[in-house]
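Protein: Pectinesterase
Species: Cohnella hashimotonis
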Amino acid sequence: MVITVSAQGDADYRRLQDAVDSLATAGGAPVTIRIKPGVYEEKITIPATAPPILLLGEDRERTILTWSDNAHTLGADGQPLGTFRSGTLNVLAESFTVENMTIRNASGPGTGQAVAAFVDAGRAVFRNAALLGDQDTLYTGQGLQYYNDCYIEGDVDYIFGAATAVFDRCTLHNKRSRGYITAASTPEGTRFGYVFLDCKITSGEGVRDVYLGRPWRPYAHVAFIRTVMDGSVAAEGWHNWGQPDREGTSRYEEFASSGPGADLGARVAWSRQLSAAEAADYRIIEIFGGWHPEGY
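Structure follows.
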């Protein structure tokens, strides 16, 4: 089943949420929602009851979903939304894919937590997507999540959460000095948290002393495999968030990092440089326990 959305009105629906809401009668069969280029000023929720959905944009640079809630925005109940209700795109479904789109939280710097994509799905795939924001840009709540050829920007904890997530050939862009890229909350006993494969880290002019991660929860796991890091990355690499006890429980790993930010001899003693044999286990199908998102 294919339905179309166009901000210009030359499609089945003008608003993306209306298209999503129409799927209650889809009978659980997979649905493709083709989205024509345009700026869609909407706050979107993909509900837990939704069938497998592919949001398919035509052009990442010209197909833009944008909203500007933040943690301090007042909700319908008169209370602040908080971080977890601030998302522009909110994915609660079991099976979800998005391709060729920009998803933006336009709240702006200094407004606090403001999520662009809140992903609390069973299996989620983002391909050729741009996730734009400042603090808390991407929340990875649960399940298995795959990000391929994506651009993700922010300033503080801009990738955070508990999911097992692979970032494959993505660009991570640091917007502010002394920030943090990841704040993982990997559950105890979970083998893989965040794995970055063949990614690159870039930054705005003058940005410095950005940490690769800090442990939002005690058992945070983050691995950077063959990542090219610019000079914005702090020499020590990782931060304990003022909780030294988490140095013994967090797993922060690198293999074959390169570039000006890969000052491996200066990394904190409680992080690890993986051997080639150890890094060989960081294959997508292994990380996801047999599931491979290609063609998903």
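Remarks: The first strand starts at residue 2 and ends at 5.
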